[in-house]
């Protein structure tokens, strides 16, 4: 492996001390909208168990006819080179998966940490993923963890020992506690063009960027490489900001999520001005406006039902889940407009259930209600908007609404060309879909 000097850096950017934020990333040159700021290979990564057989375990390529590992028969690969490339990591799990059978159930985080430990064991020099920030420099925020998070860490450490003790010489539990804290605060989820979860990874240089609710870059993935592209014009001297969270929700909700997961409160212009909050919290036009306390009460109900739905996914049937969505929309709709983000959240969940149940008309109906408000509430070039256009376009085509399908796919392409880059295979795949229809 070629050694990398700490001052090699990433062309056009530099690490710097960001006022009030600690370290950050700053531009040294102009980046136009859609241009690649930098790419970062994963330091370590793992394909989610649900995508086995659909994606190559090593390069994350999605295709039919993958070859499975002859021993565990659970990992799939494009070709022999990918299987050989993955063996140093796959051997951690191969024998264990064979012997444990259905009892093989470490969490994705545990699987990722096991791979990081293995990588650290064989890697002594700075890697291509750490040109500006070492993985060892990640913040763990252990002093800010509540009892529940501490208990989860300890459960993960126990699972790590249980499933991987044959292959890894573990450091002491305090070192492991720090590593789990670092991964939980700095890990990334790799997603496809429809925002389906593909896996988890750590990208140290990408983690250097601070958060803003009005980010000037977006992170997308090409296999197991993270690509950072400009979604606003970036001038020399500007700090480069990513978003850590879903930006659909109003300021208070966003900051609650940031405090809970990342232990800070955002003070970006969007949070200071709350410029989008009124539109995001749009109320139904009624003869007499609801009292502020009624609105607050409905917000509390909305947050509770969102949490209830998240838990119910694990034990209720699709028809029961759809009923939760419909009843909550009915209740919230007495005060909230259809464009209100809490209404949109439940519509999105309902659309997902309809897709699962193959109720294509129901899914299309929800998608049509969602897409325009999404375009208003999300920043420009949002993957959430692009993925909704993609889903809608494919639904239209399946329901033989060809012209509407083409129009929706073309709108998806316009966003994806900026977010993913014009040469990304996700973009060319959708462009082929459109060309084949014309």
UniProtKB/TrEMBL annotation:
User: GO molecular function terms here?
Assistant: histone H3K4 trimethyltransferase activity; zinc ion binding
**Where are the annotated TPR repeats, by residue?**
386-419
Highest taxon, organism lineage: Eukaryota
Which PANTHER family has this protein been placed in? HISTONE-LYSINE N-METHYLTRANSFERASE SMYD (PTHR12197), N-LYSINE METHYLTRANSFERASE SMYD2 (PTHR12197:SF193)
Zinc recorded as keyword? yes
The UniProt entry, under SUPFAM superfamilies, shows:
SET domain, TPR-like
Q: Residue ranges of the MYND-type domain?
A: 56-94
Q: Mainly resides where?
A: cytoplasm
Could you tell me which species this protein originates from? Umbra pygmaea (Eastern mudminnow)
Function, as annotated, reads: Protein-lysine N-methyltransferase that methylates both histones and non-histone proteins, including p53/TP53 and RB1. Specifically trimethylates histone H3 'Lys-4' (H3K4me3) in vivo. The activity requires interaction with HSP90alpha. Shows even higher methyltransferase activity on p53/TP53. Monomethylates 'Lys-370' of p53/TP53, leading to decreased DNA-binding activity and subsequent transcriptional regulation activity of p53/TP53. Monomethylates RB1 at 'Lys-860'.
Q: Enzyme group, top EC level? A: transferase
Its GO biological process annotations read: heart contraction; methylation
- Please report the name of this protein according to its UniProt entry: [histone H3]-lysine(4) N-trimethyltransferase
One Gene Ontology cellular component term attached to this UniProt record is: cytosol
